[in-house]
Amino acid sequence: MVEEDRMTLAPTEIYGRSDEEHNEPRIWRRKTEQLPGNCLVYSLTIIVIVFAVCLILSLIFLRISKPEIEIRSVSTTDLRFGSNSTNSYFNATLVSDISIRNSNFGAFEFGNTLLRVVYADHGVVGETMIDGRRVEAHKTIRITGVVVDIGSFRLLNTRGLDSDLRSGFLELRIVAEIRGRIKVMGRRRWKVSVMSCTMRLNLTGRFIQNVLCE
C-alpha cells in the first residue's frame, strides 16, 4: 500500500494582520485647564493698569497750579512833574486793565488785594485795592479800569529823581499778591499768585511804554 504524501495546507503559525499589530486602544485626554497662577497674573495686570490710569487722571485733574495775573494795558492821565535843584516832583494817575487766568479744574476765589506802584528802587508811590473775585475753572477774567494815583510826595528819599525827570523817563513797577483758594474734587488748596510788571513812564509823550510782566 503506497502511502500518500499529505500536504498540510493550514499554516503552522497564525500571524495577525499588519493593521492589527499596531491597533492599540486610543487614550483620550482633556484639554489642559488654566492654572490658578495664570488667573493671578491676569488679575494683577488689570490692577496695575487701573492704578496707572487713576494715577494719570489724578495728575491731570487734581494738579493745582497758580493762577496767572498780568497787566493787559495801562495808560496815564493828569501827569504833572517839575525838575529843579530845590523841588523835583511828579504826580499822575494810572489806569490799567488786569487779567487773571485760572487753568485749574476748580474755581479760584480770592479776597481784596492790594496793588502797589513802585518807583525804581526808591519805594512805593501809589496803591489801590482790587476787589475780590471768583474765577471759574479754565476761565480768564479781565478787571478793567483799575485806577491808582501816584506821586513823589510818598517818597522819603528823592535822591536821583531830578536826573530821572530830566532824562524824560521814570521806571515804574506794579506789584500785587493775590491769595485765594482753589477747590478741585472736594480738595481745597490755598495758592498765592504774584504779579510784577515793569514799565517806563514817558514824560515827554505822556504815555506808558515797555510793559513787561514776569
Automatic annotation (TrEMBL):
Keyword Transmembrane helix set for record: yes
Q: Which domain of life is it from?
A: Eukaryota
Residue ranges crossing the lipid bilayer per the database entry: 40-62
Q: Does the keyword Transmembrane apply?
A: yes
Q: What is its main location?
A: membrane
- What InterPro entries does the database record attribute to this sequence? NDR1-like
Q: Which PANTHER family match?
A: LATE EMBRYOGENESIS ABUNDANT (LEA) HYDROXYPROLINE-RICH GLYCOPROTEIN FAMILY (PTHR31234), LATE EMBRYOGENESIS ABUNDANT PROTEIN LEA-2 SUBGROUP DOMAIN-CONTAINING PROTEIN (PTHR31234:SF38)
Species name for this entry? Answer: Cardamine amara subsp. amara
Q: Where is the signal peptide?
A: none
Q: What is this protein called?
A: Late embryogenesis abundant protein
Question: What lineage does UniProt assign to this protein's organism?
Answer: Eukaryota, Viridiplantae, Streptophyta, Embryophyta, Tracheophyta
Compartment(s):
Membrane
* Keyword vocabulary terms for this entry: Membrane, Transmembrane, Transmembrane helix
CC per GO annotation:
membrane
